[in-house]
Amino acid sequence: MRAKQMRGFFVIAGLLLSAEAGAHGHGFIVRREWVVRPKPNLVLPPISWMPEKLPPLPSGWKFVGDPTKFLNNEKPAGPPPLESANNVPTPVEAPMERGAYVVADTHRLWFPLERETAVAAFREGDEILLVAGGAHELSNVSAENDVTGWKSQVLPHATLIRIAWTASRPAFVYPSTQNGQSGWQVSDNVDAMATMAMEARQKGETIIFDAPAMVGRNQTLQIDDPRSGRRLLIGLTPYRPRLVSTTFHGPGFVVTPSLAGVVVRADADSLELRALPDGFVLDAVGENAVPVRLTPISPALDGENLALTSASPEILRENYRRAWTRAALSAPGARFDARITAARAALALGDAVNADAILQTALRDNPEGIARPGVAFLHRAVAILHGREEELPDEADDNSAEAQLWRGYRGVIERREAPEEKSENARIAALLSAGLPILRSYPAPLRQVMQLVSSEWIARYGDKMEQERLRNIPQEPAMELAQALANASLHPKEAMPQLERISRDADIVKAARAREAFLRVSFIAHSKPPADIADALEMMRPSARIAGREVPVRLLQVQAFIAAHQWESAQRKLQELRHDEPQWSEQLTIADAALDHALMSDDKQANETPQNLAARLIALQSRAENASDIGRREELLQALADCLKSLGMVKRETEVLQKLLPLASQPEKRRALVQRLARDLLQQNNTKAAADLLSENADTSEETAVLQAHVLLAQNDPSSADRVLSAWTGEEASELRADIAERQQDWSKAVSVLKAQPLFHMAPLGGLTFAQQYQVVRLGSDAVRADDRPLVAQLRHDQLSRITAPDLHHLFDMLTRPKVNLAQTAIMEPGC
Question: How confident is the model at residue 510 (pLDDT cuts 50, 70, 90)?
Fold first, then answer.
């Protein structure tokens, strides 16, 4: 009975390294091994085209029973070719950052060239050829890490520089400033640049290379290759150089990859490269010329890449199923290559778990396989997608668009939950933007995994050029939110209706992120009251937490509370954030500074209600008392004292100034603080405290002398007060001396002091302020009492018409009339 149950045949395949199963007494052994067919691009035809005949069994396998009834001996029509020559990512355009991040082992060679100099550079074996427009004397070249092998040759319209540079060492060419001098630098630092790749496109019978010149102009020239003598057509780009990253073959020419500019190896005499303001044109000139055509070579032959098959999800799933099945049918010698193919098939489906399992098994059995072309790149991509950043090998030496894409995606994974850091996030956005065309060429399942977070990151942190590039991608549902975010950054008001519509999407994550962006744009555009925005942000906190945007939403809410002058709420939300999210300390410090700045601003006080003003005072006092930084505490106490002074709360102002005095370390600030505090004490009739303060902080300034005189007058010692002021001629000192003389009814002395003021030494032209008019009337009154008739007559002649205040004009006219009876003249008391 058992033998009957075992009839048939067994084909066992799976994710098992090796196993044996035996059935004693029945004479069969089945050996199960996982092996994979070695095919870099597995493009399987539909199922109906596949032959039903099973392939031969490996050694150790056998059928039990008669399997012929399960087989179809008719040979089906053969499948279409498995090779795919069209699986080529389009050329990409990547942003460039000026400057370099210098590392210890960086090889660097810097040439002093002007900023507008147009440059082209390319590799020739163990050399780099750099062509600079114009003749240049290179007398101040600097090098690092023994990079000294170079020589230059001045051509009729250019300078050719040949640099010894091993073929295994990466190279990047970019503008750089050294000691204030502009120049161009050759370096092997992979993190130094995110290079700009030109987009080559066919237009009619010409090839266009897009390379807009930001500074200077593009140039072209023809030289002979110094190694082969072949004619070279060179396109030179200034300042923001662009490079060609892909090889193009055509009739009579080859466009080779460059480090900067365009390099065409031209065999046909009819070829011509022309410079335009926005790039270059490669054209064939002449009646018998063969038109140039854009025919890119597969990147699989030109460098490392993932070589993923792009097909419908159904075919991709079938590719993976058959690759997984064939793994058990391959010979052990082909096992590693077959597993790599299966890993690629899993990665094309976005299945990082199975791709990682397959790849780890393959590398555990064959560790030396990591050195095979494309395996290290595949290992890196799978590890990034699976979230195993700590196990990644070193970064790829190349700086291709695909390498930049995966470096950028790795940065997104690492920083997705981390606090926002503008410079680092912008660098990651530049890398992602460089690889965005490659990402768009990936199979749909993998693209869906990577595209959402990548495009949203570019929209949030990319520069205007990168955001504009994102907006120009054909619209599709997966890109809707990212394009709306990019549009909100570039054109806020235009994006508001789109964001509001997306905020009602059924996807809670998508809706929450759109809602946050809509409220942020509304806050920036002042289209809604800040208090309403703060309330709306509070309501969306649960959905923001699900969408991973809770902290940015809470920080935006703090800004809205500050703009709404709800100081207590803003302070409370900041305290909650410090408790809940301590790792966001940098952003919270910025929010703290914004709150303090708003509290210390004087321009808002005039329009505030008494309730808001009281809340401002409470918040200022609270933040000043809790400030850990001495400088910040000093600023807050100063702002609090100024606010109390404007409200006339002298006693509270004095208390704040007394707390502020020990913090004042600069002599000038301390002197002004002492003088202000002394005035407040005198205003409160606290003469003894004012006298003690001035004696402890004595100085020789006129302001201090005036305050000491006020103290002496309060102590009924006018003579001493006059002596203190005798050495000073300032306006306040003069007026106080005049007050003392008037109190002593020494009118001649009062006239002498008042007449010395600058007002009475200027030509009597123009109008007078009310204070100046009062001073004129005061001097005239004292002159009348001193019986100084000439001075009275002069004042009447010069100043009567300039006194426009009705009461003062009438009084001055009455005092200075020629026949006034002094005995009957009303005496003006000081201070009238």
Answer: very high
What per-residue confidence (pLDDT) applies to 7? 40
Question: Rounded distance, CA 192 to CA 395, Å?
Answer: 13
The average confidence (pLDDT) of the chain is 77
Residues 570, 534: contact at Cβ < 8 Å?
A: no
The count of other CB atoms within 10 Å of the CB of residue 265 is 17
> Cβ(198)–Cβ(244) under 8 Å?
yes
Calpha distance 645→93 (Å, rounded): 60
- End-to-end, the C-alpha distance of the chain in Å comes to 131
Looking up tokens 């976005």, which residue turns up? 350
User: Which pLDDT does position 597 carry in this prediction?
Assistant: 83
Output phi, psi for 156, to 5 deg.
Answer: -55, -40
Q: How many angstroms separate the CA atoms of 35 and 373, rounded?
A: 20
Fill in the DSSP letter of residue 8.
B
The residue among 787, 779, 774 whose CA lies nearest residue 822 is 787
Distance between CA atoms of residues 661 and 670, nearest Å: 7
- Of residues 105 and 613, the one with the higher pLDDT is 613
DSSP secondary structure code for residue 184 in this structure:
E
Query: Closest Cα partner for 619 from 607, 606, 631, 601?
Result: 601
Q: What is the pLDDT of residue 274?
A: 92
**Distance (Å, whole) CA 256 – CA 335:** 36
Cα distance between residue 364 and residue 480, in whole Å: 42
pLDDT band of residue 444 (cuts 50, 70, 90) is confident
Q: What pLDDT score does 9 carry?
A: 37
Which residues are CB-contacts of 318 (< 8 A; sequence separation ≥ 6)?
A: 44, 47
Q: For position 685, what pLDDT does the model report?
A: 85
SS3 110: strand
Residue 734 three-state SS: helix
pLDDT tens figures, 386-430: 887 655 454 544 577 888 888 899 888 888 777 778 888 899 999
Confidence of residue 502 (pLDDT cuts 50, 70, 90): very high
Phi, psi of 372 (to 5 degrees): -70, 150
Contact (Cβ atoms closer than 8 angstroms) between residue 348 and residue 366: no
Strands 242-243 and 196-197: parallel
Q: Is the predicted pLDDT of residue 286 greater than 50, yes or no?
A: yes
- Helix (H) or strand (E) segment spanning residue 202: strand 199-203
DSSP character string of 24-86:
TTTTEEEEEE-B----SS--PPPGGGS--SPPPPPTT---BS-GGGG---S-PPPPPPS--TT
Q: Are 350 and 448 in contact (CB under 8 A)?
A: yes
pLDDT digits (tens, 9 = 90+) for 301-358: 233 467 676 677 887 888 788 788 777 677 777 778 888 888 888 998 999 999 999 9
Q: What is the DSSP string of 389-449?
A: GGG--PPPS---HHHHHHHHHHHHHHHSSSPP-HHHHHHHHHHHHHTHHHHHHS-HHHHHH
Residue 589 pLDDT exceeds 80: yes
- Tell me the CA distances in angstroms from 127 to 227, 256, 315, 782, one per residue in order: 10, 15, 45, 96
pLDDT score for 616 = 81
Residues 6+ apart with CB under 8 A from 486: 458, 459, 462, 467, 468, 470, 471
The predicted model scores a pTM of: 0.54
CA distances from 599 to 570, 577, 595, 626 (A): 11, 19, 6, 15
- Other C-beta atoms closer than 10 Å to the C-beta of 488 total 24
